Amino acid sequence: MFNRNARFAKKKPVPNLGDMVTSMDQVHKFYRYWDNFETWREFSQYDEYDPREAADRYEKRYMENENKRLRNKYMKKERARLIRLVELAYKMDPRIKQ
Predict the structure, then answer these.
(1) Which end of the chain, N or C, is more open, meaning fewer C-beta atoms within 10 Å of its C-beta?
(2) Within 10 A of 86 (CB to CB), how many other CB atoms are there?
(3) What is the Cα–Cα distance from 65 to 95, expressed in whole angstroms?
(4) pTM above 0.85, yes or no
């Protein structure tokens, strides 16, 4: 699952999950990376308005703010999904349980 999300990473290379012989420093580095994950995705596909169609600057500003609000909503959902993924992986990780 992490590999599919790694393609959206701003910072490369993305650390690997590793295996049972991976050092605990590498394991903690992996989870720190995903806790602070930065994506290049912008979610502009959810924009409701096209600011180029605005009649004046006030309408354009309104449209841009509404689009920004919608993007932020989807960014928060995406961030929450990643947080749940990392928390679940951390909780189930047998290296952490040891």
Answers:
(1) C
(2) 19
(3) 45
(4) no
Q: How far is CA 19 from CA 37, 51, 73, 91, in A?
A: 21, 49, 35, 15
pLDDT in tens, 22-75: 888 999 999 999 999 999 999 999 999 999 999 999 999 999 999 999 999 999
DSSP secondary structure of 40-68:
----GGG----GGG-SSHHHHHHHHHHHH
> Could you tell me how many residues make up the chain?
98
Task: Give the tokens for residue 2.
Answer: 């992490």
Q: How many C-beta neighbours within 10 Å does residue 37 have?
A: 21
